């Protein structure tokens, strides 16, 4: 599509575009001007009113400082300042007299600030191009939103080398997602999959192949998007279908599915020309993303165990195979999980006969295979997968057989794939069996009832009277049970009788762990004839014996839903007995994993740290009612069969008597992890968990306990003090002696700095867990931390 274009003509065009952009009338934002996030938002409009700068409410109580198309009903966002950190109502953006332009939360803490190229700021303005600028008295632009795009480019906007667009996470979640579009410093324009949530890239799935020549991406006034060389010659079209900017609003956006699309929207019914008054696609790259991504790590175009297919509208669809369900119904790219119990690898189980295959033609999950057989029959391929408990899918194509195991990645359905996928599922899953049993029981009741009712008219009348009496009594009891003020646990929480849990645990025989206020036992409960291993926590001393209070707290815990929290399955409140039933975590606690004889892998330790941080962020920021854990420590971080970290015992603090789980009077938590404010009679906030996480993070980084008596140097006994001394002296390598993986990770210093911020003695200095996650992911720069015992201005 590339063709030669006169360098002189292109430079003249660029000059005219720049002239037209700078000659627009400014609607100035003067010193002291501010906008506040609330339900009756005020905005700063461009002269024509086509663009607005201000706050948009994204979720209940969460606002985005953004620029959007203001004259269309969709109010489509084209730029945002705080996409990874929504602010609360009452947050403010302000132009200060000293030349600062900042976004701050209701407490005055800075969330975002424009970085100016030079001093002398005097005003800001929202332009009709969709560009928000900060300028001096001479109208020299000191900062502009066009230089810091999020996921969108607009007409007259250019992207220079090292410029980038990062997709949103989903259609409704504007935080940074899984895909990157960037003009590299080597001149190549590339689309990558990101190693989410970090900034590393995994796989280049589209490229202009312009290494050494690409200089600038231009979205011109005529609606073309193209890549030019330094001398102005055209190298490649990114979007070659144009539309008039006088008749159509336009944008190019890297969407959450990884496709860069050029959209247009009619400015009036007359200019629509038969088009609907909505955004319509003019161009997009790549043409079929399902077939373009084949990466060795990561899930591919869609989530793990799902498959990607191109719809009739050329949009990629992410779907689950038969027998699977989507992990997160709100995120179609979250992947799929089997709805049936996996095949038992125990030879005595003899489960081969319990599984069969569903077929999907032209389907494959490339690079997920672990075995390959040439020139075999299809029935042989089926049987070899059926006999292998690790085999989840077999691919049979052209006489060849591939065996694949979980998780399946790079799933795609396309006519060019050929062959077929044989997906192994359980023959009679629990749902079918259960419904069949219920149907059989119902049939039996009908037959039995018919026999009795047909015996005599008198018996019929008697039975009818008894039935009416029963229905009346049942409805009265039901109405009494379901009073509107009654507290009910979450919909998926099961209430157990004490005897049932006693049987499930074989008389509370196998103890998994013991604490100051509870003992945990291993148990097996049946649900629709499927046996599930569970952990039963028997609470010893409760804060109240009242049924409603206990259920209220159980309800709060049960309504949490996050992959890094241990799931509550049920409870028991029979008599004086108070028990909680949790999912079983087969790899035990982080304490056992971390402090063993051999040092765990550095990257596995980091995964655990990230998972714990995200779980705490959810408890603090995303629950309907904020939950403060009060006892974050390695013993309360549990690991499942794949060593995914999950926080346990959250919300338990409210269920305990005041003298439970203390180190000293009035203090909850565990010695070594307790925040200093517990000792100072200060209000306890979520920052106590941030402090505990900081200690835990240091333990994960250094792979040692927070206090070790048997050390050669006395100053190394307390890990927090030792870490800060090493940071201050520039000897951080001493923290991880002989750990080459840690020392070779360029993020190592940054992680230690984050931990030091978390363990500041002044709670106001500690970041929130949401900010901690952002610092860890690299979306926010880590400032230099002060001495934990100091009182320097907070982050």
From TrEMBL:
Keyword annotations: ATP-binding, Disulfide bond, EGF-like domain, Glycoprotein, Kinase, Lectin, Membrane, Nucleotide-binding, Receptor, Serine/threonine-protein kinase, Signal, Transferase, Transmembrane, Transmembrane helix
GO cellular component: membrane
Record's signal peptide: 1-23
Name of the protein: Receptor-like serine/threonine-protein kinase
Stored InterPro entries: Bulb-type_lectin_dom (IPR001480), Bulb-type_lectin_dom_sf (IPR036426), G-type_lectin_kinases/EP1-like (IPR051343), Kinase-like_dom_sf (IPR011009), Prot_kinase_dom (IPR000719), Protein_kinase_ATP_BS (IPR017441), Ser/Thr_kinase_AS (IPR008271), SRK-like_kinase (IPR024171)
Binding site for ATP: 538
Topology in the lipid bilayer: Single-pass type I membrane protein
Catalytic activity: L-threonyl-[protein] + ATP = O-phospho-L-threonyl-[protein] + ADP + H(+); L-seryl-[protein] + ATP = O-phospho-L-seryl-[protein] + ADP + H(+)
Membrane spanning residue stretches: 451-473
Bulb-type lectin domain mapped to chain residues: 26-147
Entries under PANTHER family matching the protein: G-TYPE LECTIN S-RECEPTOR-LIKE SERINE/THREONINE-PROTEIN KINASE SD2-5, G-TYPE LECTIN S-RECEPTOR-LIKE SERINE_THREONINE-PROTEIN KINASE LECRK1
EC number(s) reported in the record: 2.7.11.1
UniProt xrefs under SUPFAM superfamilies: alpha-D-mannose-specific plant lectins, Protein kinase-like (PK-like)
Compartments reported by the entry: Membrane
Domain Protein kinase residues, every copy: 506-780
Primary localization class, coarse: membrane
GO molecular function, one term: ATP binding
UniProt enzyme class: transferase
Family to which the UniProt record says this protein belongs: Belongs to the protein kinase superfamily. Ser/Thr protein kinase family.
């Amino acid at each position: 599509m590339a063709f030669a274009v006169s360098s002189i003509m292109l430079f003249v065009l660029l000059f005219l575009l720049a002239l037209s952009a700078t000659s627009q009338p400014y609607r100035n934002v003067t010193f002291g001007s501010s906008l506040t996030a609330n339900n009756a938002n005020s905005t700063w409009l461009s002269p024509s009113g086509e663009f607005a700068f201000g706050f948009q409410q994204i979720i209940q109580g969460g606002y985005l400082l953004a620029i959007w198309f203001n004259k269309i009903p969709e109010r489509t966002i084209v730029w945002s300042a705080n996409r990874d950190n929504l602010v609360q109502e009452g947050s403010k953006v302000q132009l200060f007299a000293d030349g600062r332009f900042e976004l701050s939360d209701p407490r005055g803490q800075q969330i975002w600030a424009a970085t100016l190229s030079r001093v002398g700021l005097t005003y800001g303005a929202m332009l009709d191009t969709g560009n928000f600028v900060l300028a001096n008295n001479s109208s020299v632009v000191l900062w502009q939103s066009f230089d810091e795009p999020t996921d969108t480019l607009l007409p007259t906007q250019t992207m220079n080398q090292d410029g980038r667009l990062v997709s949103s996470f989903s259609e409704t979640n504007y935080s940074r997602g899984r895909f990157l579009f960037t003009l590299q410093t080597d001149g190549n324009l590339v689309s990558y999959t990101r190693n989410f949530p970090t900034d590393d890239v995994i796989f280049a799935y589209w490229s202009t192949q312009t290494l050494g020549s690409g200089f600038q991406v231009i979205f011109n006034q005529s609606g073309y998007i193209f890549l030019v060389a330094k001398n102005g010659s055209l190298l490649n079209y990114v979007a070659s279908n144009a539309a008039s900017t006088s008749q159509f609003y336009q944008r190019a956006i890297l969407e959450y599915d990884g496709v860069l699309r050029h959209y247009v929207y009619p400015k009036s019914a007359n200019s629509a020309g038969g088009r609907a008054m909505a955004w319509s696609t003019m161009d997009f790259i790549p043409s079929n993303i399902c077939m373009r991504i084949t990466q060795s790590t990561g899930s591919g175009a869609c989530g793990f165990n799902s498959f990607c297919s191109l719809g009739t509208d050329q949009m990629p669809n992410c779907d689950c195979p038969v027998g699977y369900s989507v992990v997160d119904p709100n995120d179609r790219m979250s992947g799929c999980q089997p709805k049936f119990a996996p095949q038992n690898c125990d030879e005595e189980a003899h489960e081969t006969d319990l599984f069969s295959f569903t077929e999907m033609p032209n389907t494959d999950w490339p690079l997920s295979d672990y075995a390959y057989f040439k020139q075999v029959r299809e029935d042989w391929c089926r049987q070899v997968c059926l006999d292998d408990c690790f085999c989840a899918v077999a691919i049979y194509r052209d006489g060849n057989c591939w065996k694949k195991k979980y998780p399946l990645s790079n799933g795609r359905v396309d006519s060019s794939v050929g062959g077929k996928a044989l997906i192994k599922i359980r023959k009679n899953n629990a749902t079918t069996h259960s419904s069949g049993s219920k149907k059989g029981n119902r049939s039996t009741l009908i037959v039995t009832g018919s026999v009795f009712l047909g015996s005599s008219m008198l018996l019929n009348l008697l039975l009818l009277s008894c039935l009416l009496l029963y229905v009346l009594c049942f409805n009265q009891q039901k109405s009494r049970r379901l009073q509107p003020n009654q507290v009910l646990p979450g919909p998926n929480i099961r209430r157990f009788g004490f005897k049932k849990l006693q049987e499930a645990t074989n008389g509370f025989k196998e103890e998994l762990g013991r604490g100051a206020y509870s003992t945990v036992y291993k148990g097996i409960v049946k649900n629709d004839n499927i046996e599930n291993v569970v952990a039963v926590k028997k609470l010893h001393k409760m804060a109240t014996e009242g049924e409603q209070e206990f259920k209220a707290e159980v309800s709060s815990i049960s309504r949490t839903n996050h992959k890094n929290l241990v799931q509550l399955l049920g409870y028991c409140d029979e008599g004086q007995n108070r028990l909680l039933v949790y999912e079983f975590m087969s790899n035990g606690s982080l304490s056992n994993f971390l402090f063993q004889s051999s040092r765990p892998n550095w990257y596995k330790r980091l995964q655990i740290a990230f998972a714990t941080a995200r779980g705490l962020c959810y408890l603090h920021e995303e629950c309907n009612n904020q939950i403060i854990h009060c006892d974050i420590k390695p013993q309360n971080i549990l690991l499942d069969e794949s060593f995914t970290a999950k926080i346990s015992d959250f919300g338990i603090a409210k269920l305990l008597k005041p003298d439970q789980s203390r180190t000293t009077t009035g203090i909850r938590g565990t010695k070594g992890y307790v925040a200093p404010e517990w000792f100072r009679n200060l209000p306890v906030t979520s920052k106590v968990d941030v402090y505990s996480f900081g200690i835990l993070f240091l333990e994960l980084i250094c792979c040692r306990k927070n206090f070790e008596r048997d050390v050669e140097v006395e100053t190394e006994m307390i890990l927090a003090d030792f870490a800060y001394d090493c940071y201050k002296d520039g000897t951080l390598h001493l923290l991880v002696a002989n750990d080459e993986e840690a020392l070779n990770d360029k993020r190592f210093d940054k992680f230690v700095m984050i931990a030091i911020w978390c363990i500041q003695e002044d709670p106001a200095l500690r970041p929130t867990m949401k900010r901690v996650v952002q610092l860890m992911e690299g979306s926010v720069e880590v400032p230099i931390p002060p001495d934990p015992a100091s009182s320097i201005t907070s982050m």
